[in-house]
Specification:
With 286 residues, this protein is mainly beta. It contains 6 helices and 20 strands. The strands form 5 sheets. Strands 1-2-3-4-8 form a 5-stranded mixed beta sheet, with no helix packed on it.
């Protein structure tokens, strides 16, 4: 898990929320004792949980729970336009990406994509190349999948032990984030999916205000969205910042191209917004 722990005050104690492989658990900060846990969640997580006074929201999407052409497709953006044959066939895939026809793929033979970003994860022998033994299994629909499932859930406070069956209020299975954490802001829960798709749902009912609305800035989204002055700020890895009106409707206010990559979430301190790009730290004061 790459998820950051969440500090959650509950009555006269403070709980620490931490995700693991296929689960999220709560611990008492004062003594480290486990309080509750929920299972059947993503087996590999990057997003962190967020919470209101009495509910926790947590979930993610990971390639660990998909196989075959769906997994291959997840490695690229829609702008890369892989054909059905390239998504389903090892030879067609190699014909597209093995530029020098040496029977293996180096990182720079891929376009800017998750395939390049996560290259080392699939380079099992750390040779610096993806070879047939590492690429061919991606196309197998029967490939083993890590235990768990791609899902986002709402969990009510007040439980003890395994509360999977008793305290989960609703589940979401579509348009889930890969790295960026959800944002709870002005009675709406926002999350952004790879490729540039924004969803906003009612945090109590789980019903969508809008779902998978296209932002117009494709690629990966590693920075978590933030809310400020009635607006939602979303930043793509390619450096495009999009501002939305915080409302029940999908409404883009403005786009800003920072002309550098954005991998870190913006932060607000007092009246200053801090943003780290590829080679600069920016401070914007209203």
């Amino acid at each position: 898990s790459y998820s950051t722990p969440y500090i959650w005050p509950q009555g006269n104690r403070i709980e620490i929320l931490q995700s693991g492989s296929g689960s999220i658990a709560s611990y008492d900060l004062s003594n480290g004792e486990a309080i509750w846990h929920v299972t059947e969640l993503p087996g590999f997580t990057c997003p962190s949980p967020v919470a209101s006074d009495d509910k926790v929201y947590f979930g993610a999407w990971t390639t660990a729970h998909v196989t075959g052409s769906t997994r291959v497709e997840s490695l690229f953006s829609e702008d890369d336009q892989l054909t059905p044959e390239q998504l389903a066939s090892f030879p067609a895939f190699m014909d597209r990406f093995d530029k020098n026809k040496d029977g293996k793929i180096a990182p720079m033979e891929f376009p800017p994509s998750r395939a390049r970003d996560a290259f080392n994860f699939n380079d099992q022998d750390q040779s610096g190349y993806w070879e047939k033994k590492e690429i061919a299994p991606l196309f197998e629909n029967s490939a083993r999948s890590l235990r768990g499932r791609n899902i986002l859930v709402s969990i009510s406070a007040g439980g003890k032990g395994d509360i999977t069956e008793t305290h989960v209020n609703w589940e979401k299975r579509k348009a889930l984030p890969y790295v960026a954490s959800p944002l709870l802001y002005q009675d709406r829960l926002y999350y952004v999916k790879k490729g540039g798709y924004l969803t906003a749902i009612h945090p109590i009912s789980g019903e969508p205000f809008f779902e998978s609305k296209k932002i117009g800035a494709s690629g990966e989204y590693y920075a978590s969205p933030i809310g400020v002055d009635g607006q939602i700020l979303v930043a793509s890895k390619e450096g495009i910042i999009t501002l939305f009106k915080a409302s029940d409707e999908f409404e883009i206010i403005k786009k800003i191209d920072m002309e550098e990559s954005i991998l870190s979430s913006p932060a607000i301190v007092d009246d200053t917004l801090y943003l780290r790009t590829g080679s600069h730290l920016w401070a914007f004061r209203g």
